[in-house]
């Protein structure tokens, strides 16, 4: 077999079980692809020794019988936000320079326990704060999709994960999503990304950004792979107090492609002013595809949609300012050099000024401000009340019998790296306008590639599901994927 | 609500991030743009709405109050910029 790195998880799993291929062969193919893809800057810490060791162990396990888990022997990339024992885990930040955790995140441990092979750590926006992977201490990750001289963003914050999966450097990757950080990069790279219901994946060992919004999820080449990998990532974990103690279904078995009678809601508030015509058309086409597959389409209203982004930009920075208070130069990471006579407050202030990038500093300070005496009620509590209303909008839609909601994933296709440098920070935040509501309401959401724009860049549609109904959601996504028939891949230039 | 240079300085200090004086006006300007965006929330009627604390109604799990992990001072100190004799070392805190 050639180009083993181009396989999907399902294809590789079946070939491994038949004995047509070994995990060592798959892993070597991916390591070779990674070596040749420096220009994408997707893998920022490579772990070939760990990869080969796990691949050999997986091959031994696969030989032992038919009961090896689906992810056994599958080479994957891990976002730098996940703590991985003995391997740099920096959240793409200078403040965690050389940090090597003594422990493994629950999600990456679940993958390792299932026999998955870690190839290395993937680029991202610093502390997952960004929508273009341009705030990383490692430099920009680059989208393998290209239509002219410009280098394009793979999206963010899971930009390295998206780039690596789209470029076939790995079979799949982990991502995390606080406001759209799995779904927006998936849409920008023609890949699939699902953020499960809040509480499905343990947050333990994932470097925290905004704890009430953060969720991990897989980034894969198709919906079936997303189902397979998500199931392995999910678990109840006593080490995360918000981890859900409910059974994890066998998601892949729920992919029948039969969505007859399913009710799909189309929210009118997502038809934004100035929405590009091709996004509108993509959305209409996707609606038609689901209708043709037998779904019932209804118009719904989510009246507080407009306020989701402003609420998010209170809540997420507020939580970040608390979570990131731990980076003080005492226990791990960077510590600033002090001049004679400087004390501990100087140490904190200089360490954090040197260690945090500009966007992180800005969000920590906005968070500090909205939580400060006198403003807590006006900003933070008001935002949490609006959040309750946003969730109520969704609850009411689901009470009407809606099974899933279809929206665009992003307001545009991938843009050029550096193009937003002079823009207002709020302009960059608008990338998450369709995805952020889902985090605020704690719902599962998936981005599915559904077409190309007129330049030839991928565009995604988002499906939003009922809480804990990832299986149903994946099945609707599977039907949409089948109907959309998106098979384009970026042409190799790197 | 408009943030001036002095407020920006105060916020930076509260966040324990050193911002040089000449960078404060630009910072205040950025804050104002972000807060201007956030101000939209004032349009929403939130009378009688409880602030959300959790997306899923759940009672936090409880467990026996027993030691589950411990005796790993070396591991805990292994990433410290300055660790001495089993402690984190910092500049003098008390004069």
From TrEMBL, chain A:
Task: Give its E.C. classification number.
Answer: 6.3.5.7
Q: Name one GO cellular component term.
A: glutamyl-tRNA(Gln) amidotransferase complex
The GO terms describing molecular function are: ATP binding; glutaminyl-tRNA synthase (glutamine-hydrolyzing) activity; transferase activity
Q: Which PROSITE patterns match?
A: AMIDASES
Q: What class of enzyme is it?
A: ligase
Domain Amidase as annotated: residue spans: 25-474
Q: What does this protein do?
A: Allows the formation of correctly charged Gln-tRNA(Gln) through the transamidation of misacylated Glu-tRNA(Gln) in organisms which lack glutaminyl-tRNA synthetase. The reaction takes place in the presence of glutamine and ATP through an activated gamma-phospho-Glu-tRNA(Gln).
Self-association and partners? Heterotrimer of A, B and C subunits.
Q: Which HAMAP family match?
A: GatA (MF_00120)
Give the matching PANTHER family.
GLUTAMYL-TRNA(GLN) AMIDOTRANSFERASE SUBUNIT A, TRANSAMIDASE
> Known NCBIfam families for this protein?
gatA
- Protein name, entry field: Glutamyl-tRNA(Gln) amidotransferase subunit A
Q: Which organism is it from?
A: Maritimibacter harenae
Phylogenetic lineage: Bacteria, Pseudomonadati, Pseudomonadota, Alphaproteobacteria, Rhodobacterales
UniProtKB/TrEMBL annotation, chain B:
Gene3D superfamilies recorded: Glu-tRNAGln amidotransferase C subunit, N-terminal domain
Q: Which superkingdom is the protein from?
A: Bacteria
Could you provide one GO biological process annotation from this protein's UniProt record? regulation of translational fidelity
Q: What is its EC number?
A: 6.3.5.-
- Provide the family line: Belongs to the GatC family.
Q: How does it assemble?
A: Heterotrimer of A, B and C subunits.
Task performed by this protein = Allows the formation of correctly charged Asn-tRNA(Asn) or Gln-tRNA(Gln) through the transamidation of misacylated Asp-tRNA(Asn) or Glu-tRNA(Gln) in organisms which lack either or both of asparaginyl-tRNA or glutaminyl-tRNA synthetases. The reaction takes place in the presence of glutamine and ATP through an activated phospho-Asp-tRNA(Asn) or phospho-Glu-tRNA(Gln).
Query: What name has this protein been given in UniProt?
Result: Aspartyl/glutamyl-tRNA(Asn/Gln) amidotransferase subunit C
Top-level taxonomy: Bacteria, Pseudomonadati, Pseudomonadota, Alphaproteobacteria, Rhodobacterales
Q: Which gene encodes it?
A: gatC
């Amino acid at each position: 077999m050639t180009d083993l790195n181009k396989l999907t998880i399902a294809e590789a799993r079946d070939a491994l079980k038949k004995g047509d291929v070994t995990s060592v062969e798959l892993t070597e193919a991916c390591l070779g692809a990674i070596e040749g893809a420096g220009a994408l800057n997707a893998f920022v810490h490579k772990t070939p020794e760990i990869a080969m060791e796990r691949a050999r162990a997986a091959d031994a396990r696969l030989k032992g019988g038919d009961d090896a888990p689906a992810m056994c022997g599958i080479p994957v990339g891990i976002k730098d936000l996940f703590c991985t024992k003995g391997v740099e885990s920096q959240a793409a930040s200078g403040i965690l320079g050389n940090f090597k955790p003594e422990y493994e995140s629950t999600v990456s441990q679940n993958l390792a326990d299932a026999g998955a092979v870690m190839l290395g750590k993937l680029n991202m926006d610093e502390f997952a704060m960004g929508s273009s992977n341009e705030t990383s201490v490692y430099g920009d990750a680059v989208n393998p999709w290209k239509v002219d001289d410009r280098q394009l963003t793979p999206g963010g914050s899971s930009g390295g994960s998206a780039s690596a999966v789209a470029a076939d450097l790995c079979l799949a990757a982990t991502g995390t999503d606080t406001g759209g950080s799995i779904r927006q990069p998936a849409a920008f790279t023609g890949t699939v990304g699902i953020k499960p219901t809040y509480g499905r994946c343990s947050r333990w060992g994932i470097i925290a950004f905004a704890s009430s919004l953060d969720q991990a999820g897989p980034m894969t080449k198709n919906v079936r792979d997303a189902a397979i990998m998500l199931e392995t990532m999910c678990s109840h974990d006593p080490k995360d107090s918000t981890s859900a103690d409910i059974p994890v279904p066998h998601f892949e078995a729920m992919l029948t492609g039969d969505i007859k009678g399913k009710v799909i809601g189309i929210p009118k508030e997502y038809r934004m002013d100035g929405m590009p015509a091709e996004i509108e058309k993509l959305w209409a086409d996707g609606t038609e595809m689901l209708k043709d597959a037998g779904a019932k389409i209804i118009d719904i209203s989510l009246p507080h949609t407009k306020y989701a982004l402003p609420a998010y930009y209170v809540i997420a920075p507020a939580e970040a300012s608390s979570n990131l208070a731990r980076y003080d130069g005492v226990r791990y990471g960077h510590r600033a050099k002090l001049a004679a006579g400087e004390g501990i407050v100087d140490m904190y202030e200089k360490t954090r000024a040197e260690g945090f990038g500009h966007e992180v500093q800005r969000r920590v300070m906005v968070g500090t401000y909205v939580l400060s005496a006198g403003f807590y009620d006006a900003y933070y509590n008001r935002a949490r009340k609006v959040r309750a209303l946003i969730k109520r909008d969704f609850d009411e839609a689901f009470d009407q019998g809606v099974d899933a909601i279809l929206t665009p994933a992003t307001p545009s296709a991938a843009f050029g790296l550096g193009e937003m440098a002079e823009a207002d920070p709020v302009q960059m935040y608008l990338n998450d306008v369709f995805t952020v509501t889902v985090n605020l309401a704690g719902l599962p959401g998936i981005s599915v590639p559904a077409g190309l724009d007129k330049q030839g860049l991928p565009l995604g549609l988002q499906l939003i599901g009922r809480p804990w109904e990832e299986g149903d959601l994946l099945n609707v996504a599977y039907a949409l994927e089948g109907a959309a028939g998106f098979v384009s891949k970026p042409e190799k230039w790197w | 609500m408009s943030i001036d240079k002095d407020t920006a300085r105060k916020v930076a200090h509260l966040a324990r991030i050193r911002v040089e004086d000449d960078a404060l006006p630009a910072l205040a300007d950025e804050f104002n743009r972000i807060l201007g965006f956030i101000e939209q929330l004032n349009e929403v009627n939130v009378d009688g709405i409880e602030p959300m604390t959790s997306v899923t109604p759940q009672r936090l799990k409880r467990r026996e109050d027993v030691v589950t992990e411990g005796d790993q001072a070396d591991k805990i100190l292994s990433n410290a910029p300055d660790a001495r004799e089993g402690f984190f070392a910092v500049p003098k805190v008390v004069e």
